[in-house]
Design goal:
single chain, about 260 residues, mainly alpha, globular, transmembrane, DUF2189
């Protein structure tokens, strides 16, 4: 495991921070560090994992009840994850500084950072809104209806979907996923740690992705693989995997941002 220096958490005064280069295999180190951080606060970690699992079950239940809002529910869940993980970032930050992990202190710090966090939420919300509107248009073209049924969604996985529309749908979804990952991979940890504005946080995250894209793609694949494992267990696995990924994300921020 590579060594790590704890850096100042004060707001930046001299412009955007520098970004460190990483090796392609370093995401494995972040996961190992995440396990160690988890072990130091298991109760706190499992609480956040349980909350995320409950959010997953709730989203699935709403999707079956109101399938025409499926994309909105599932996209909202993907956006909720990073913000639930914010408490995990604060817990890792507290451990680094030798403090005891405290939910109350976590909430206090989130409140202090509320302005920049809210602006970043707005940024992701605009991307989400554009995706929901575009996907609704694609579904309307395919099914000649503004409110597809659950059978229509399941038809996507059984081959009853126009290949051209499916290609647009998957291509745009992939582009959206890459955009969200590249802009937010380090943004929320950085806002929490240094109280920088969203533009600085997004710019730093983009530069980290551009400089370290091989390692960042490995990191993205690791997130997808572990998240997929959690989904296959009926989201029960997310109780442990969600905090693990949250802590590993914090360590990735600490490793790349000077």
């Amino acid at each position: 495991m590579r060594s790590q220096t704890v850096r100042s958490s004060r707001p930046l005064l001299d412009g955007a921070p520098s970004v460190h280069h990483i090796e392609i295999d370093e995401p494995l180190d972040w996961l190992k560090q995440g396990v160690a951080t988890f072990a130091q606060a298991p109760g706190h970690s499992l609480l956040y994992g349980t909350l995320f699992a409950l959010a997953c079950w709730g989203s699935i239940g709403l999707t079956w009840s109101m399938p025409w809002f499926a994309l909105a529910f599932l996209t909202g869940l993907m956006l909720l994850g990073p913000f639930l993980a914010a408490g995990l970032y604060v817990a890792a930050r507290q451990q680094e500084s030798g403090q005891s992990v405290s939910i109350r202190d976590s909430l206090n710090l989130l409140w202090l950072r509320r302005t920049n966090l809210s602006l970043f939420v707005l940024f992701l919300g605009l991307i989400t809104a554009a995706w929901i509107r575009l996907s609704a248009l694609l579904f309307a073209i395919q099914f000649d209806a503004l409110s597809p049924s659950i059978d229509s969604y399941l038809g996507m996985f059984s081959g009853h979907f126009d290949p051209l529309i499916a290609g647009f749908f998957l291509g745009i979804g992939l582009l959206l996923a890459i955009t969200v990952f590249a802009t937010s991979a380090l943004a929320i940890p950085m806002i929490l740690d240094r109280d920088v504005d969203p533009i600085t946080a997004i710019n730093t995250s983009l530069r980290a992705f551009a400089i370290n894209w091989p390692g960042m793609l490995v990191w993205a694949a690791s997130i997808v693989t572990l998240s997929g494992t959690g989904i296959l267990t009926g989201f029960i696995g997310m109780v442990a995997l969600f905090p693990l990924l949250g802590y590993a994300t914090w360590h990735s921020y600490r490793r790349m941002v000077a």
